[in-house]
Design a protein that fits this description.
Largest sheet: 5 strands, mixed
Distance between the termini: 97 Å
Radius of gyration: 27 Å
Strand content: 15-25%
Number of helices: 12
Structural class: alpha/beta
Oligomer: single chain
Order of helices and strands: HHHHEEEHEHEHEEHEHEHEHH
Length: about 325
């Protein structure tokens, strides 16, 4: 009886206990080798990787941003040449300017893709720290007013104005269908990106058509400008309205310049693009403004505009809420 109680079979508990102990040691060794994988530890390592405490404007950032080493940027990354993806990388005017600003701030500006009409809501919910997406600075957006309903839906945003642009019209090349400017659009079909200045302008012009006893403009609004261009390319609409840099780029590159043509002369309703920062974030807003001013002074701004052939859109002064 004594012998049977001291000699356990090979599958007994001591061997299982030894195996469990060995597995625990191996797990601890692996964890030690890989480092702490908790969310907090990963965020800390990411911040250290992105952060440059010696950057000229790092000290002007809010402490919370300094600790994260990153700002989340809301952007509609389908808007060539302002922001778009190429081989999986975000490229364009806004990403290039953001990269130059990040060097002055000592943190990363991380672009997040979203449809344009959801960006203001993303700022309100704090999903994004700022929006940089060819967004026109308007009083309505500053005040948090929905342009469709006229109702106040939030506190609004402050804009840091960085480009002066306007709205342009383009048609199929050689097939204008009588469209030669906004005054010739009554009774015609136009495609726009939803929630943009082009969309608002088309609605205003359509109302004016009806007020003059003419047929309204048939407006088709899409989530992004690429969809509007496709609709025009296939003959579904007579024209597209986009911000001038986007219209000029589409006319230049689509079909190697054979798909579209600009109509209507100079851009209409010139207004500034602004970096949108939620109200109440004055320290962040002022740090971003200072970064943009440094980028203009050191020549990086001019290089970006020259690269994308929009030198005429340069601002002479970085204004806050300069839109009307």
């Amino acid at each position: 009886m004594t012998a049977s109680t001291t000699r356990l079979p090979a599958t007994g508990r001591p061997r299982r206990a030894l195996a469990a102990a060995a597995a625990a040691v191996a797990s601890l060794t692996l964890l030690s080798a890989c480092g702490d994988q908790t969310d907090a530890a990963i965020a800390k390592r990411e911040a250290q990787k992105n952060r440059n405490v010696n950057a000229p404007l790092f000290g002007k950032l809010p402490k919370s941003v300094q600790e994260k080493g990153m700002l989340q940027v809301g952007s509609d990354i389908t808007y060539k040449p302002v922001e778009f993806r190429s081989d999986g990388k975000v490229e364009g005017i806004d990403p290039d300017l953001a990269e130059a600003m990040s060097k002055e701030l000592g943190i990363k500006l991380n672009f997040n893709n979203a449809t344009f009409d959801t960006l203001m809501g993303g700022l309100k919910s704090k999903r994004y720290d700022l929006a940089m997406s060819a967004m026109t600075d308007t009083k309505e957006r500053q005040q948090g007013i929905d342009s469709n309903t006229g109702k106040k839906i939030g506190q609004g945003v402050d804009f840091i104005d960085y480009l002066d642009v306007g709205v342009s019209l383009y048609t199929r090349k050689g097939k204008t269908n009588g469209v030669d400017g906004w005054e010739t659009l009554c009774g015609k079909k136009i495609a726009v990106q939803r929630g943009t200045v082009s969309h608002d302008l088309a609605k205003d012009k359509s109302t004016a058509c009806e007020g003059n006893g003419e047929q309204p403009i048939s407006i088709e609004a899409f989530d992004n400008d690429s969809e509007a261009q496709t609709r025009l390319r296939t003959g579904g609409v007579d024209a597209v309205s986009s911000d001038y840099p986007v219209a000029a780029y589409a006319v230049q590159v689509s079909g190697k310049g054979n798909d579209f043509q600009m109509v209507g002369g100079a851009p209409l309703k010139a207004a500034p693009y602004g970096i949108a920062v939620p109200k109440g974030q004055e320290q962040l807003r002022d740090a971003l403004k200072a970064a943009l001013e440094r980028v203009i002074r050191n020549g990086s701004y001019a290089k970006v505009l020259e690269k994308w052939d929009i030198k005429d859109a340069a601002v002479k002064e970085v204004k806050l809420n300069g839109g009307s």
